[in-house]
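Ticket #4471: structure export looks truncated?
Reporter: QA, pipeline team
Priority: medium

Steps to reproduce: submit the single chain below to the structure queue and open the exported record.
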Amino acid sequence: MKICYWGTFEREYPRNAVLISGLRQNGVEVIECHFALWRQGFRYNKLALLGGAAKKLRLIGRALFAYPLLIYRYLLVREHDAVVVGYLGHVDVFFLALFAKLKRKPIIFDAFFSLYDSAIFDWRLAAKNSLMAGICRWVDGSACRLATLVLVDTEAQRDYFCREFSLAREKVRRVYMGADDAVFAPARASSRTAPLRVAYVGNYVPLHGVPIILQAAQLLDQDDIEFWFIGENRREDARLEELRSALDSRRVKFYPWMGPRELGARLQDADVCLGVFGTSEKARRVIPGKAFLALAMGKPLITGDSIAARELLEDGRNAILCEMGEPRALAAAILRLKNDGALRQRIGQEGRKVFEQHCSPKLLGRQLAHLVEEIRNPR
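Actual output as written to the record:
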């Protein structure tokens, strides 16, 4: 099988890296037609580019160069079974559609999330009835309709896409995000007993609920619990900075973004990993990448109790699920794991089993290859 991975997707972004690696682990030849449109890297908040004339003009200038080059490269690709438009590729689909149709090749669009939902309801860049909201919603729906198949990361997201954009359920499929298990491998055993190291990895977008974690850290004002925040506050949120400045820097530590290998090495020394705790509808529909890192490494995971989380996780068995948006619930969950070493170990081990059974790169690559086979040879 040959698959063309096409567009301005970011090779380093875990979603793309995991699926490409997984396909290759299953013997699929992956031909990359790629242009690095997003110079800042995958950690940069791309939705911020929707605001600001100068940023828009720079992006448009690069896009005017990128798409003719990508189309030319695609026309040179000979035999292939399908084209996958990697994340973030909502606009890419529009430029590919005609040429894929001419070649009679199906398009698999990895939507991953909704631009409309993220820009308007999560980041609140514009009002629900604004022009920007209308454009984002139109881009989402039109890109999905141009594609043969649409990928999202949870069944809850699948339900949302089908409902919001009037898509047939069989057109939208769930493929978990996963994690690179070559880098984020099960952690080595540690004889250290204190302090308990609690790690959060990610940016400070609203859905993650970073203020909830910071408030939980304030509640757990104990010398034997240490919090690590790995990532950056690019939103320059005054409330977050106020919470951050009130914390004891000896036990609450902030680190900049790290490369995958450095991050993997850092998380080896963490005792507990955190997921998402925001209260938005989107927060309830996703399982964040940081959760898959914890599962891959066999680290006990605490994350918000949501419909998405319960697709994969069971409270008290392979994760601790706590009420979203509630600092006291999160603090109680952390104390529960702190005071029960056997529970920490068991949840970490069971979480690793979930990863191996449902979301390793090889399994996800096999799932995507089966989807290509399904649309190429419908029954």
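Status: closed, not a bug. The export was complete when the record was re-opened. Leaving a note from the reviewer for reference: Residues 195 and 224 are 4 Å apart (CA to CA).
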